[in-house]
Amino acid sequence: MAFLATAEACDSNAALLASGDLRALQPIFKIYGQCRAFSGPIVTLRVFEDNVIVRELLETRGEGRVLVIDGGGSMRCALVGGNLGQLAQNMGWAGIVVNGCIRDVDEIKGCDIGVRALASHPTKSNKKGIGEKHVPVQIAGTLIQDGEWLYADSDGILISKSELSV
Ligand SMILES: O=C([O-])CC(=O)C(=O)O
């Protein structure tokens, strides 16, 4: 996939930015994972301190998609760790964005996917299986719909209603 720089995308799509069809997430995420730049169609997931459904989704073929997890911003446990990072890589996901924490930072650094999260936390999450897939999520000041596109690089993260042309 051709690389689309987020700054360039903002400069060349002013009308989309003005309309809200293209928007930038507030810069609250830290960069983890090997890919500093990644993009793809979004799969949304809302959970709270429970990552059973995270694993369930990452066990399916990613086909270049990006998993966007609204973990409610919890700072009390990790929703993704080294095993799930490896799984995501093996199943062909382009990346994972977590409104919450991850763990096994050094293992995730070795995974060939993009990972963004608020912070790291050594504690694992609950395993009750509670959460909702493919629902609109509100993250970093932005409403994100399942099926929209995400573009991430060193400058930040963009959400677009449809695929952007390079
Ligand atoms: O299984 C978990 O709760 C998350 C984790 O530590 C991993 O993915 O390695």
TrEMBL record:
Cofactor: Mg(2+); a divalent metal cation
Annotated positions binding Mg(2+): D104
Binding-site list for substrate: G81, G82, N83, L84, R103
Protein's UniProt keywords contain Transmembrane: no
Membrane-spanning ranges: none
GO biological process terms held by the UniProt record: regulation of RNA metabolic process
EC number: 4.1.1.112, 4.1.3.17
Gene3D superfamilies for this protein: Ribonuclease E inhibitor RraA/RraA-like
Listed GO MF terms: 4-hydroxy-4-methyl-2-oxoglutarate aldolase activity; metal ion binding; oxaloacetate decarboxylase activity; ribonuclease inhibitor activity
Keywords, sorted A to Z: Lyase, Magnesium, Metal-binding
Keyword Magnesium: yes
Enzyme class: lyase
Coiled-coil segments on the chain, per record: none
SUPFAM superfamilies: RraA-like
Catalytic activity annotation: 4-hydroxy-4-methyl-2-oxoglutarate = 2 pyruvate; oxaloacetate + H(+) = pyruvate + CO2
Function: Catalyzes the aldol cleavage of 4-hydroxy-4-methyl-2-oxoglutarate (HMG) into 2 molecules of pyruvate. Also contains a secondary oxaloacetate (OAA) decarboxylase activity due to the common pyruvate enolate transition state formed following C-C bond cleavage in the retro-aldol and decarboxylation reactions.
Protein family according to the UniProt entry: Belongs to the class II aldolase/RraA-like family.
Binding partners and assembly: Homotrimer.
Name this protein carries in UniProt: 4-hydroxy-4-methyl-2-oxoglutarate aldolase
Biological source species: Manihot esculenta
